[in-house]
Amino acid sequence: MLGIYYCTWILVLPFVDKENILQMFFPPKVFAVAFPLAIGVIGLLVIGLFTSVTMSQRKGVNVSKKS
């Protein structure tokens, strides 16, 4: 459902007049780029954090096994 809303916002709204009532159901077009960009950056940060925590825990386990 969110995909349909976003596709309508990106693909249809540029061809609709600014005075049309459909325009009031969507945020400004600047957010069409800002929302996916923010979600992507946050997603990459979470993946990087998970990877670094996992690697540091795994490194600690390997050191203790060698001793």
Summarize, please.
The protein has 67 residues and is mainly alpha-helical. 70% of the residues lie in helices and 0% in strands.
The helix/strand series, from N terminus to C terminus, equals HH
Provide the gyration radius in Å.
22 Å
For the secondary structure, the number of strands is 0
Mean pLDDT: 87
* SS content category: mainly alpha
Shape: rod-shaped
Would you identify the regions where 5 or more consecutive residues have pLDDT less than 50?
none
Biggest β-sheet description: none
Proportion in helices: over 70%
Give the N-to-C terminal Cα separation: 55 Å
SSE diagram, text form:
Elements: H1 2-12, H2 31-66
Can you walk through the features of this model?
This protein is an all-alpha fold and about 70 residues long. Helix content is about 70%, strand content about 0%. It has 2 helices and no strands. It has helices spanning about 1-10, 30-65. The longest helix has about 35 residues, at about 30-65. The mean pLDDT is about 85. InterPro entries: DPM2. It comes from Magallana gigas (Pacific oyster).
